[in-house]
Amino acid sequence: MRILGIETSCDETAVCLIETQGSFGPGFSFSILGNTLYSQAALHAEYGGVFPNLAKREHARNLVPLLQSMLKDAGELEAADMIYHIDFETLLEREPELLQQLPPFLERHKKPAIDCIAVTHGPGLEPALWVGINFARALATAWDIPLVAVNHMEGHIVLSMMAGSGLTHFEFPVLSLLISGGHTELVLSETFGSYNIIGQTRDDAAGEAFDKVARLLGLGYPGGPEISRLASQARNERLTKSFILPRPMIHEDTLDFSFSGLKTAVRKIVEQGALTETTKQQLAREFEDAVADVLVGKTIRALEEYGAQTVLVSGGVSANTHIRLCLGEALAKTGGGTRLLAPPPEFATDNALMIALAGYFHALEGDSTDPSALVARGNLKLA
Ligand code: KG4
Ligand code: ZN
Fold first, then answer.
1. How does DSSP assign 129-148, residue by residue?
2. Which of 121, 146, 234, 359 has the most CB atoms at less than 10 Å from its CB?
């Protein structure tokens, strides 16, 4: 099957075309025919976080050019004169920019060999999600192919289960640590597609904490990679600790998290006086250590409480080498032989491959959605 994945839940505009074979299991394989992504991060940098209306505008501006260049890479861009008896004005009435770009593009190109469209319908920023949904709807209607709605977090999970061009060999139950800009959750899956949220953040998400602390330290957006860079400089230079930050809720008898106190603790240090390059590195290191300690502590607690054959880490923050390393070490120490699954670092942050993959498994189960009934769900939960 050939699936087009579309992702616009936050500040990455992405489209990807994959070809897949087999069902969820050892016989599954996929290949990427085309994959394009435009990150708006630099545009949001001055706000220190994602500005929803800017994200919406940029998605609308870039989806058609990205689709075009992706189809070209996939060898699926063929000129043709097409006539559509479709009311694009109504379909795209909320998306003037797409209305201007998409119908002419469709009318000038042959329908590519695509069997199904998978699009993120939540969670995320609703104005941003809507652009992807309206785009997907118009394509599914014009090309007359099924549309599948994908939960963005399930996309992150599915991608962590892949290795090379197939599924990693692992056993259920799977305990997933989902750490992104908007989420910090521990989720238990007894089978593929079942999700039981057993712990979550009560305030800021892990990625949000990285972004806010980076802002306090005068670093760029997204903050995760910036903090991580300074922290590893501190480790390489063996800078001794000069700050101690709290490990919020680490000893409390709950699987929930809280990161806002950590950010407040950093703010207080910053307010005490100007930081030098060295003290910034030390503080970044201590912050990264504190986040890692809490994430690892809660994951091990969940493993002890619920048991799992496999631990999976996913979401943008899972790009963090130090956090991955600490998780791996802690799991090895338990001696239980639990496997750790993580996405390839270049696919840890948002992308459309994860949406295409998750969409495929739903398509196999016949989970297609009526295009006119599809809506953005900013707070969509895994269920
Ligand atoms: O999954 P993602 O791309 O978008 C959401 O679904 O939210 O995650 C983005 C988050 C941002 O907060 C970013 O700062 C964080 O992931 N991030 C990192 C790293 N790379 C990205 N956090 C820590 N270390 C990193 N290397
Ligand atoms: Zn994400």
1. HHHHHHHHHHHHHHHT--EE
2. 359
